[in-house]
Amino acid sequence: MKILMYTVRPDEQGPINEWVKQHPDYHIDTNTVPLNADTVDLAKGYDGVVILQHASIPDPIVYQKLREFGIKQLSLRSTGYEIIDLAEATKNGLAVTNVPGYSPRSVSELVLADVMYLLRHLGEVREREQHGDFRWTNTEAKEIHTLTVGIIGAGKIGSAVARIFRALGATVIAADPIHRPDLNDTLTYVDHETVYKTADIVTMHTPLTDETHHMINAKVFKEMKSTAIFINASRGPVVKTEDLVDALDNKEIAAAAIDTFEGETPIVNHDLTGKPIHNDNLEKLLAMPNVNVSPHIGFYTEVAVQNMVEITLNDVETILQGKTSLHQVN
Ligand SMILES: NC(=O)C1=CN([C@@H]2O[C@H](COP(=O)(O)OP(=O)(O)OC[C@H]3O[C@@H](n4cnc5c(N)ncnc54)[C@H](O)[C@@H]3O)[C@@H](O)[C@H]2O)C=CC1
Ligand SMILES: O=C(O)C(=O)[C@H](O)COP(=O)(O)O
């Protein structure tokens, strides 16, 4: 059996080689391009296709061609799968799989790092030190156990965030339509408005859907505490970025960390040294010492990369054997 993996990074090659060693009947080829209408022909002659990319695949021709090539699945090495047109995939007989829970700790530990960085004003401290100002002005910090952490979307990642902050003594509240009894000792479920109004740290962990698109906007920022820290490590378009910039400019919130942002595809994991980034809102956020921008690295840990590769390839194998993968999303 032959599998083609798109957009493979060098750090994924080790886990891929390990998987092939355990599965001698499979041959895997890799490339470094995203799947789209220009690159779909590369999949001709393969039995299975695996992708990982930020760019959406809206063009129906991609799904039609995969069907014409006799391919039965399209497996994502990611959790989020909003880049796929599921209706087109289904129409063309493609089972789409994702990797839920490859390592909820990966993203939740970045959230912890962001919160510590912002709570201790390390961005402001570093900015001042660079021009010789070593004073303590405005750097008195709050301790985590005195704070309320508000989670929007307490699924696999959101609940891992909840556990970390509960272990550090914070009060944790969450808004999620699904209430999990196993989290009863960790958090209290409340409505969205209560999270916005009462949390000292508001952190986003929903998927990107029609409902969550721009769910954080000017109206919501006005509800938050002026001392609040806002974090988005879910998907960029969950937040209306221009409203985030305004909320920070107008001191409606105190600080923010964003691991995902609108228009990130041409920026994330690219070296743009000396080149324009063509994203005005991002440039404004990058210039603020009370904002930490990271280029979608929440997932990027050794454990996560290993699991993303291994679980995806196991799913391809399952489908190629004529069975149904537990991770099929259509
Ligand atoms: N920054 C990064 O590198 C990464 C980001 N992600 C993003 O994080 C998202 C969440 O991942 P998981 O926790 O694994 O997914 P999950 O499916 O386990 O949890 C998502 C939770 O959000 C809840 N939810 C949906 N709509 C909601 C709404 N309107 N209000 C409140 N809650 C709502 C769901 O009920 C569910 O409990 C992914 O869909 C992906 O977009 C995932 C992995 C890495
Ligand atoms: O798994 C996800 O969802 C992520 O966000 C990871 O960062 C990787 O997926 P892409 O966003 O790069 O598709």
UniProtKB/TrEMBL annotation:
Q: Which residues form the signal peptide?
A: none
**In its UniProt record, which GO terms are filed under biological process?**
L-serine biosynthetic process
Q: Name one Pfam family in it.
A: 2-Hacid_dh
What range(s) does the D-isomer specific 2-hydroxyacid dehydrogenase NAD-binding domain occupy? 114-298
Enumerate the GO terms in the molecular function aspect: (S)-2-hydroxyglutarate dehydrogenase activity; 4-phosphoerythronate dehydrogenase activity; D-lactate dehydrogenase (NAD+) activity; NAD binding; phosphoglycerate dehydrogenase activity
Task: Name the source's superkingdom.
Answer: Bacteria
Domain D-isomer specific 2-hydroxyacid dehydrogenase catalytic span(s) in chain numbering: 4-330
Q: Which family, according to UniProt?
A: Belongs to the D-isomer specific 2-hydroxyacid dehydrogenase family.
Protein name (record): 4-phosphoerythronate dehydrogenase
Q: Which organism is it from?
A: Lentilactobacillus hilgardii (strain ATCC 8290 / DSM 20176 / CCUG 30140 / JCM 1155 / KCTC 3500 / NBRC 15886 / NCIMB 8040 / NRRL B-1843 / 9)
